[in-house]
Specification:
Rossmann fold; 2 domains; single chain; two-stranded parallel sheet; mainly alpha
Amino acid sequence: MYSTLEFAELVCERLKQENPQMKFIFSVRNPLKRIESSYREFHHSGPHYAVNAPFGLGRAIAELPALLDDSHYWARIQPFREHFSDEQIMVVFLEDLQRDPAIELARCYEFLGVDTAFQNPSAGAQLNSRDEKFYDTRLLRLLRTNRFTGFKLAKISVPRQNELFSRLGLRQKFAKSLQWEDTSKADTVNALRQDVQQFLAFYGKPADYWPEFV
């Protein structure tokens, strides 16, 4: 949230005032995977915020601009680079963290100036997994948007909704990989390619680190 298009400039101005020596660790992943993860989160958390996330990645990207806007990593990190030095900013690539969490965490500890020998007992654990995310079936979405039933559903706590509606088959988990429409994926890659290449080059990664964006 701190680095989103909507809030980054304001965040950086306030942080500069409060703590000009602050250090930042940005965790990034393949932008296509980030969009997929955000798509799942929009569906999972939608009932908390009365957001009916669109079905399908292409439609979601068209109707939820943040999915694409906040995947422009090079653009999103610029407000921080403008207010703070590059020595205060570290970028961690999720792919590296998954491959060797001990090494990446040691790098983070060294950057922060704390004990690099510390062994984190949760290193390597997969938290906030896609398998924990729920989405509405189209029937449940119809009930949510119906003026006679929507307000009644909104009175039920979201954990209770997940429990109740999953039993009824109306709220399901993302058990399968998301499917991209060919045109939507190509448009997304084209929209992000230049930003991705600038970001990878600046932070010392090869151009094919995320091969879709070569």
